[in-house]
Amino acid sequence: MKSKRFIRYLLAVLTLFPLLLTAKEISFSRITEGLASNFVTCVTQTEDGFIWVGTKNGLQRYDGMRFRRLLSLGLPGLPVDQLLIAQKSKSLLVRMEHKFFLLNTHTNKTQEIAIDKYSKDFQNYQIRLVQQGQHIFLILHGVDILLLNESTNKFESSKSIIDFPSNWEPTWLQYDQKGVFWISGKQGMGYFDTKRRSFFTNNNLNSLKNISRFFIDSKSRFYIQTKTRHANGQIYLTDANFQRKKIIPSEPNRDSNYHDFYDCFEYDHTVWTYGVDIFNLFDEDKKEFIQFYDRKNMDYGIQITTVSQVFKDRDNNLWVATDNGLYIMSVIGDHVRNIVTSTIFHKAAITALTSFGSDRILVSSWGEKLTAFKYDTALHINHEPTINSLIFKGEPPRDRNFNHIWAMEYDPKRGNIWVGCKDGRLILFNTKTKKSQFLVPKVFEGRSIRHITIDNGGQLWFGTDNGKIVRTSNSGFALLADLKSAISCIRPGEGNKIWIGTRGSGVFELDGGSGKILKNYKSGNHGLSTSKIQDIEFIGNRFLAIAGYSGLDILNLSNGHIMQYNINNGLPQNMITALVTDNEGLLWMSTTAGICRFDPNKKEFHSFNKQHGLINTSNIVNLPMRGIKLESGKIAFSSDKVILIFDPSKFNNSNSAPKKLHITDFKLFDNYLSVDSLIKVGGVTLENWQNYFSIFYSPLSYNDRDNLKYYYRLEGSENSWILSDPRLGVRVAALSPGKYVFMIRSENQEGKFSTITRLPITIKPAFYQTWWFFSVIILLILVGIFILHRYRLRRLLEVHRLREKVARDLHDDVGSTLTSIHILSEVAKKDLSDEYHVVQSYLDRIGANSSQMMQAMDDIVWSIKPDNDLLQKIVARMREHAALILDPLKIQYIFKADDSIRNIKLDMEQRRNLFLIYKEALNNISKYAEATLVDIHIGAGASYIELIIKDNGKGFDSNKQQSGNGLFNMNQRSEALGGELKISSSTGAGTSISLIMKI
């Protein structure tokens, strides 16, 4: 009974349940967030990896990250009672009370399954679906067994597969390893031989009546449940011949006055039974079912009344459907063991651990002395309490301080166990002589001994709660240093160095011979994270790991550099309580988040949880405060009440990459699209306004999903990988039209990446963003340009014809009339005698004016005529005019025109103003300059025409205001051209005129 209570208490504290005979641990993880109802009735897994959960509030799908409640599947609003997988179609078979449906999980289409017979009173039957191999049977309890025919979508007669007497009143069936269908009935047990096509039974098989269900394990043993009305059921254990029958005791919930067996389940040669108010494990030694959990522990336990199903997924996780949510039950194995000391130390807390030989661990307490445990390679644990009585034999009867132990150390060379106690008490026990010495050395000054260690030379070191460092010597004990702060740990280093962690003054490096302080590492700039040290541990001979409540510090012993780790760069939690280095150089540590491991080469952390069998910390009871490496290479951590021993080599890094991620949902606005359909057509194509969507993904693996990092990238929009939370998914908004590829991958704690999962996404452009729309717009613009061009050409032609007509009319009519006037005035002058000199003067004036009018008319006609729009024509006229003006006055001139003026066209007004400015300049030179040489140059740039006229005449003072209209008109015409006119002149230095006009 003591052993039984010990097991139960362990379950109550950790729910990491040791099966001491099979060396296995069992842990539970509760999953409720997102469940439509905590009343979970059934669970199964489809071939794509999704977990399907039936509840009293309908059907849900779970991908390891989130539950999705599937609506509009054609299913009625009824509770889901059973879920199975139809082997032919791989569809999900859903039983909802007395209705059955086949759900295609890829298309979300459902088909209702008909019942071939019994349809009239079918609602009154007690029914149950049973899957055996490729077949799904429908058991009408005590009536008949039907078989699912997927071709006809009906439950039909099962005579083609099994047969039994018409009066058998079947209640259950199971297919055994020999190819035989066992069928129970109210009359007893029988079997159908599929090879002989015959049903058999006998008196032995019929010795048990009212069989409700039965289960055949891997050892061909029968667990037979019998039940009479209004009574608790019983389970019999028997062989296949039913010759050795035994009632198996069971342990229903303690506060239950009624329990009912639903079914049995086997995993790894362990059998469970479950039902209403019962969830038991079969103890092979005692041949009875025992309860292996505590309903009161909500942190890690399983608080349930009814277990409806236990299901094994493809990753060997065990899913437990209960009336208090969904649980994952993990069977750990033989590399982890948890030991609860409450029945040994009672309320006293564990204070120290030390390795004692190759297969023992010594455990001390505060007030209840100490004890020892022996373990083997499979971590079977045996308690050895006799060590306590041996060590404390001869204890001073009135000094209770020896019972309050702080520290221990084992000296294997001399066979001594040193025990440090309260108020400076010290016990020295020799394992060879089996005798103890109870010492009170004065050097400790009555202060508690908090830590003991043995150095490389076999010397013992002691640290007290007030900072005293004491070492053994030939004369007894010697005080080597006073560090003024409580000692948390002492570690011997290379050579003769000793490293000491303190509770408030950081880490000290001491000379082991003299006790001289060589270095003191504290918190501060480029220092430690904290001066309050919990533990220190060497990682090889290069690094010293330093633990505190502010993170992990790694001291490089060669250069003194300190690397700090905290929650911002990988550490799961900042508070670290104990450190241990394993044989492979990996650093194990206990934190407020549980046990984790640090790889100093890769600088990576790996967290472990109760699914691995390691402690998840929820309160001070299971927070590990100390740790050691045992002589066997195993590691032990302990909290106040529990000792965790495990083999670190079984947690080696996996060389394999994480599994490929799966896109589980594509949510467009508030509607889900079928991911299978999207993948089948090679991606998703959306309209331009459908640019807000969410993508969800999961590894569809239910083991280490929380130890992975998840990244996504939207190729075409993002160039880098972005860290993501798969529970929230990836939300994309306001995506521009184009082609994209959504990519996801995961990274494990060893830095290995999974294969990239891709989903092409195309956002169609709006009609106004399409190529054909742009083509139509461009075509319309071109048509418009063409029409405007045609209109402009027509107007230009009209203006051209008008200018030609005006020029022709002016030349023909006005010009001929002025010529006639000029001729007549000349004739009249010849015919007049000299006495009519007054009349002659008038005629001279008429002739001169008419000549000027003819010249002006000629200029106007020339400027109006469209053929003269080219600048070359203007230059030609300029040459003519220069010859006309300057040659009679015998003024030499140089006229130069650049080739750049070719093909430049000016409008009528520009030609007129340019020519008149030129004409006025030559007119002024001919009248006033008295020049002998004139230099004329006309050229053009990309956007301008430049005219330069220089003479070597007498010049004038340009600073004085000039009278006359000539210069004023030149400036006015320059402004009309949008040009710039510059006149430079000085007395006796000639004149320079420069005109720059824009074109």
- Estimate the global geometry from the Cα principal axes: elongated
| Count of discrete alpha- or pi-helical segments spanning 4 or more residues | 9
Q: What kind of oligomer do you see? A: single chain
Unreliably modeled segments = 1-23
What would you call the structural class? alpha+beta
- The tally of strands reads 72
The rounded distance between the terminal residues' Cα atoms is: 114 Å
Strand order of the main beta sheet, please?
Answer: 1-2-30-29-28
β-strand percent reads: 35-45%
Largest sheet: 5 strands, antiparallel
Helicity, in percent?
10-25%
Rg for CA atoms: 53 Å
The overall pLDDT average reads 87
Give an overview of the whole structure.
Helices cover 17% and strands 39% of the residues. Strand 22 (234-238) and strand 23 (246-248) form a beta hairpin. The strands form 17 sheets. Strands 1-2-30-29-28 form a 5-stranded antiparallel β-sheet. Helix 5 runs antiparallel to helix 6 (837-864), helix 7 (871-886) packs parallel to helix 8 and helix 8 packs antiparallel against helix 9. The protein is built from 9 helices and 72 strands. It is elongated, with a radius of gyration of 53 Å. The model is unreliable at 1-23 (pLDDT under 50). The protein is an alpha+beta fold and 999 residues long.
